[in-house]
Amino acid sequence: MGKTIAEKILSKKSGQNVKANDIVIADLDFVMGQDGTSPLAIRAFDEMKASKVFDPNRVAMVIDHSSPSPLEGVSELHQQMRTFANDKNIILYDIGDGVCHQLVPEQGHVVPGDLVIGADSHTCTYGAINVFSTGVGSTDLAAGIISGKIWFKVPETFKFVLNGKLPKGVYSKDLILYLIGDVTADGATYMAAEYVGEAIKELSIDDRFTISNMAIEMGAKCGLMEADGKTIEWVKKHSDKDFETVSADTDAVYAQVKEYDVSNLEPQIAKPHTVDNVSPISEVAGLPVQQGVIGTCTNGRLEDLRIAAEILKGQKINKDSRLIVAPASRNIMLQAMREGTLEVLIEAGAAVVTPGCGPCVGTHNGVPSDGENVISTANRNFKGRMGNNKAFVYLGSPATVAASMITGKLTDPREFIK
C-alpha cells in the first residue's frame, strides 16, 4: 500500500513504517516560537528543569506579533525572549526582521522533506515547499526545544485536485478562500491537506505559500505540496542544506479526494465573522470599507505588494478609506523600496508599517473603530481579530484590497487590471 506525503515524512522522521492514525515520536528539523507564545514556552522550559536546547542552530524565536512593542508589559516579554536566546545561543529575529512564517523559509531554515513545529497555528505555511510543518502549543514547543522530538498522530490526508488555470485577476488567495468556503472551517480537521494539479503547478512559490498558510482555516494539520522545479530552484536560492523531495505514491490512500476546475473562478471574499463564510465578489461589491490591510504571513510577500502597486499606480486612496501595508520581512521591504513598489503604494496614500503581524492580530498598527468595515489580506476575520469586536473584517486578495481602496467600497479588482 502506497503512502501520502505526510505518511512518508513521519515514517522517515520516526524511523518506523507508519500509516494514518498511528502514534509516533519523531525527530524535528526545526522549531520556532513567536512573541505571543515563546514566553510561555520559556516558562515551561524552566518548569521542566531543562538547561540546554537540543540544537541552537535549529531553534528560533521571532518577535513579530507586537513589533515594535506597543506596551510596557509586552516589552518585558520581548526582553525574556532576548535573554533566553542569548543564554541558549539560539536564533533570534528581533523587531523589524519580519513575520515568522516568511523568515523561516526565506532564511533557509527549512527544506523539502523536513519536519517542523512552531508555536503558531500558521506554521503550516512551509508545506508549500514540501515541508511537514504544523502548529503546536507552547508546552509542546518547550518539549521540542529540549528534546528535538515530539509525538504525532499521523494524519489522514485530504487531497485537493485543482485543474485548469486561474483567470486573470484571480489569485491564489481567491482559490484558497473558495476551497475553505466549500469544505468549511472543520472540513479537514486534523488531516493533512495535499494540493495537486495543473492550477498548483502554474502558481509561483509566493502564491503557493498563501494556500498552505490557510490550510489551518479548514482545520488541517498541514498543507502539503509536492516539490517541482520551481520549488527546488526557490529552495536552493534560499538554503545551502541538502534535501530530498517527497512525493505521494500513486496508490496512496486518502481519507477524501475532491476535484475542482478553477478556470472560471472569480475573486472571492470571506465575510464576517468566519473564514468559511465565503462568496464571490459580485455578491458583496459596493459595501463601503473604511480600512484596507495588505500584508501578514498570508499576503505580505513581494509579489503581493507588486500586484497592489500595479493597481494603485497613478491612483489615490479614497478619501473615506485608509490603507495599511505591512511587508512580510525586512528583505521584502528593502526589495520593494529598491524597485519602486513601495513608492507607488505610498504615493497612492498607503501607510507602510514595520514588517510584522500587528494589524492582523490587532495588537497595534491599525485597530479599526466601532462599526468599521475592513478589507484585509489576512487569514482570519473572527470577531475581534483586529483588536475591536465591534468592527467587521472581510478577507480578499491584495488586488481586491487595492481596488477597494480606490473606490472606498468592496470592488472587483478586474475593473482595474489592464
From TrEMBL:
<keyword id="KW-0028">Amino-acid biosynthesis</keyword>
<keyword id="KW-0411">Iron-sulfur</keyword>
<dbReference type="InterPro" id="IPR018136">
    <property type="entry name" value="Aconitase_4Fe-4S_BS"/>
</dbReference>
<dbReference type="GO" id="GO:0046872">
    <property type="term" value="F:metal ion binding"/>
</dbReference>
<dbReference type="Pfam" id="PF00330">
    <property type="entry name" value="Aconitase"/>
</dbReference>
<keyword id="KW-0432">Leucine biosynthesis</keyword>
<keyword id="KW-0004">4Fe-4S</keyword>
<dbReference type="InterPro" id="IPR033941">
    <property type="entry name" value="IPMI_cat"/>
</dbReference>
<comment type="subunit">
    <text>Heterodimer of LeuC and LeuD.</text>
</comment>
<keyword id="KW-0479">Metal-binding</keyword>
<keyword id="KW-0100">Branched-chain amino acid biosynthesis</keyword>
<feature type="domain" description="Aconitase/3-isopropylmalate dehydratase large subunit alpha/beta/alpha">
    <location>
        <begin position="7"/>
        <end position="284"/>
    </location>
</feature>
<dbReference type="InterPro" id="IPR050067">
    <property type="entry name" value="IPM_dehydratase_rel_enz"/>
</dbReference>
<dbReference type="InterPro" id="IPR001030">
    <property type="entry name" value="Acoase/IPM_deHydtase_lsu_aba"/>
</dbReference>
<comment type="pathway">
    <text>Amino-acid biosynthesis; L-leucine biosynthesis; L-leucine from 3-methyl-2-oxobutanoate: step 2/4.</text>
</comment>
<dbReference type="InterPro" id="IPR011826">
    <property type="entry name" value="HAcnase/IPMdehydase_lsu_prok"/>
</dbReference>
<keyword id="KW-0456">Lyase</keyword>
<feature type="domain" description="Aconitase/3-isopropylmalate dehydratase large subunit alpha/beta/alpha">
    <location>
        <begin position="286"/>
        <end position="408"/>
    </location>
</feature>
<dbReference type="InterPro" id="IPR015931">
    <property type="entry name" value="Acnase/IPM_dHydase_lsu_aba_1/3"/>
</dbReference>
<feature type="binding site">
    <location>
        <position position="357"/>
    </location>
    <ligand>
        <name>[4Fe-4S] cluster</name>
    </ligand>
</feature>
<dbReference type="GO" id="GO:0009098">
    <property type="term" value="P:L-leucine biosynthetic process"/>
</dbReference>
<dbReference type="GO" id="GO:0051539">
    <property type="term" value="F:4 iron, 4 sulfur cluster binding"/>
</dbReference>
<dbReference type="InterPro" id="IPR006251">
    <property type="entry name" value="Homoacnase/IPMdehydase_lsu"/>
</dbReference>
<comment type="similarity">
    <text>Belongs to the aconitase/IPM isomerase family. LeuC type 2 subfamily.</text>
</comment>
<feature type="binding site">
    <location>
        <position position="360"/>
    </location>
    <ligand>
        <name>[4Fe-4S] cluster</name>
    </ligand>
</feature>
<protein>
    <recommendedName>
        <fullName>3-isopropylmalate dehydratase large subunit</fullName>
        <ecNumber>4.2.1.33</ecNumber>
    </recommendedName>
</protein>
<comment type="function">
    <text>Catalyzes the isomerization between 2-isopropylmalate and 3-isopropylmalate, via the formation of 2-isopropylmaleate.</text>
</comment>
<feature type="binding site">
    <location>
        <position position="297"/>
    </location>
    <ligand>
        <name>[4Fe-4S] cluster</name>
    </ligand>
</feature>
<dbReference type="GO" id="GO:0003861">
    <property type="term" value="F:3-isopropylmalate dehydratase activity"/>
</dbReference>
<dbReference type="InterPro" id="IPR036008">
    <property type="entry name" value="Aconitase_4Fe-4S_dom"/>
</dbReference>
<keyword id="KW-0408">Iron</keyword>
